[in-house]
Amino acid sequence: MCAAVLKNWREAATLMLVHGRKKIQNRILDNLHPSQALQQTTNLADHGLELLVLKRSMKSSFMPNKYVFPGGIADDSDFSLHWLPIFGATTPELAAHRFGFAKTVEEITPMFYRLRPEQFSVIPSEIAFRICAIRETFEEAGVLLVRSVDQSSYDFNASAAYPYHFGEDHSSKVEEWRHKVVQNPLAFLTLCENLEVVPDVWSLYNWSNWLTPHFDTVIDKEKGKRYDTAFFITCVGEKPYVAEDAKEAVHSEWVSPLQMIEDFAENRVQLAPPQLYEASRLVNCNTVDALLGYLQRQARQPVERWMPVMIKCADGVIFTFPGDSLYPKKPDLEGEHPTLKREEKLQELKSQSSQLHRAIIQTPPVKDGKPTGNKRIQLECTIDLPYGHVAPSFEG
C-alpha cells in the first residue's frame, strides 16, 4: 500500500523557482493584457522574473528531452510520521500551529483532500507534497530549500526562500547527500536531522494542479504514465548554485517566462502544455515583489485540478481546459474513451465557441517531408479563472 499511487495515475509535485532579474524589454510584452489582479501590483521597477527550468534526459521515463520545472513522484517518506519531531509538531496543538496554514478542504483538489491509509495521514497531504517538491528539487537541481530549526518562525508569509549552503565543500556535500536521497528518499529526513533544518514548506505557495491527459494515438510516447501534480511556486532571495543530477536532468537554465514561450514557439525547446500555460501566466507579472504580493493575497484560495482534453481537428490540435465551450461536462479522467476528433478547422471551432480556454497548436504545411515554418502556438482565455487566479497571456 502506497501513499500516492492510484489506479490510473501517481501523485507528484513540482516547484517553480522564481528569481528577480532586469526588466524584460520585448515587443510582445507591449501587447499583453495582464489580469486585473496583477495590474494592481505590477509597477515599473527594474526587476523582472526568471524561472529555473531543467531539460530532461533522453533516457528519462517521462517527458524525455522536454524542459520542465524541478519535481517528481511523491514517496511514502514524504508522508512519514517521523517528520513530526523534526518540525517540532509532537502534539496535536503544535501540529496545528506548524501546519495550520495548509487546511485544504476543497474537493476540487483531490490530492490534498482525499483520504489516505492511516499511516500516511499523520501530516496534512498538502504538507507532504510540499516536502516532496523540496526533496525533488534537491535531487534534480541540487537546490536545498530549508530553514534552521533555531531560527525558523514557522509562520506562513510572503518572504523569499533562501537556499541552504553547505560552506566551502558545498558542491561535494550536495553530491554526497543527493546520492543518498536518490537511493532512498527517506535519507532526506536524515539530512534534515543532521543539519538541524526543516523543509521550508512555508515559502511555497499553491499555484496549480494538473492531471496528465490520456492519449490513444502515436502522440502518446509515454502511454500509461499519468500524474496528478501539484504545482508550487516560490521566490528565492538569491540565485542558488544549480547542479543537475545528470540522470533525470541534463541541463539547467534561468530564463524569463517570455523567453521560455518564444523558445517553444520557435522550436528551440519542447514544453508540455502545463509548462507553457504556467509560463504564460507569469508573463503578466514584472517584479518579484508584485508576484509575492499576489501570492500572499491568493494564499487562502484553493486551486482546481485541471486535466487538458485534446481534440484533433482538420488543421491542428486543441487542448481545452475547464471553462472552454468545447470542454466536456464530464471529462474522461480514467481514459476509457478514444481521443476526441472534429472535422472542422481551428478557426471554425473558435467561431462556434462563446467561451475560450484552450491551447491551440497549428502545424505548418509540409513540403518535401519538412515543415515550411514554425508551429503556431496560441493560448486563448476569454474567461475569468476561478478564485481570482491570474489568466495566461500569449500569442506566438
Automatic annotation (TrEMBL):
Question: Does the record bear Secreted in its keywords?
Answer: no
Q: Which UniProt keywords apply?
A: Hydrolase, Magnesium, Manganese, Metal-binding
One of the entry's Gene Ontology molecular-function terms is: metal ion binding
Annotated Gene Ontology cellular component terms: mitochondrion
Keyword Magnesium among record annotations = yes
Cofactor(s) this protein cannot do without: Mn(2+); Mg(2+)
By its UniProt entry, which InterPro entries does this protein fall under? Answer: NUDIX_hydrolase-like_dom_sf, NUDT19
Q: In which family does this protein belong, per the annotation?
A: Belongs to the Nudix hydrolase family.
Task: Quote the protein name from its UniProt record.
Answer: Nudix hydrolase domain-containing protein
- Organism (species): Littorina saxatilis
